Amino acid sequence: MAAVLDDVDRKILRTLQQNARTSNTDIARQLGMVPSAILERIRKLEERGVILGYEARVNPAALGLDLVAFISVKTDDRTKQYEGAEKLKRFPEVLEVHNVAGEDCYLVKVRVRDVSALRDLLHDKVSAIGSVVSTKSTIVLGVEKENGRLPIEPASAAATRGTRFATGRITP
């Protein structure tokens, strides 16, 4: 069941991405609507899987997690490859796991204390996954931009390109 997001839904999503703690009253005021209508729209966006959840963005430095690295992971067997992904996703240091085209199977974003913690993660956890053949790490020297906000354009612009939301995927 494909659902098209209208401009009001998109404005709500933009507002919540900027600050998920924005009250329904404030959103309603911004959009010239009543709070109950905003609450109903947000509930429907949650039910349809457009809004996946809410979370606090924590400063990594406050937790001593100063090192970001990207690890390219190559696995040996296509049938075991997804088993490796499931194991990678369970490590708390792992922020993202992407199945990629090319020589490697996965691109993994991690955040750890320091190089020693990265070494421990690679040797004690990642290398212990049976299907992992090799890894290549890239250490980030500085983060210029990092957030999870998606670009949300007006419904009219999305409709021109045919972008629709269906079963959790954006399709052209």
Quick overview:
The chain has 6 helices and 7 strands, in the order βαααβαββαβαββ. The chain has 172 residues and is an alpha+beta fold.
- Strands ordered across the widest β-sheet: 3-4-2-5
- What are the segments in which pLDDT stays under 50 over at least 5 consecutive residues? 166-172
Number of strands: 7
Q: Provide the helix percentage.
A: 25-40%
The SSE order reads: EHHHEHEEHEHEE
Give the tally of structural domains: 2
The fold-level CATH name of the largest domain is: Alpha-Beta Plaits
What is the CATH level 1 assignment of the largest domain? Answer: Alpha Beta
Summarize model confidence as the mean pLDDT.
Answer: 89
**Alpha-beta classification:** alpha+beta
| Known CATH architecture of the largest domain | 2-Layer Sandwich
Distance between the termini: 15 Å
The fraction of residues in strands falls at: 15-25%
Q: What is the H level of CATH, i.e. the homologous superfamily of the largest domain?
A: Lrp/AsnC effector binding domain/regulation of amino acid metabolism (RAM) domain
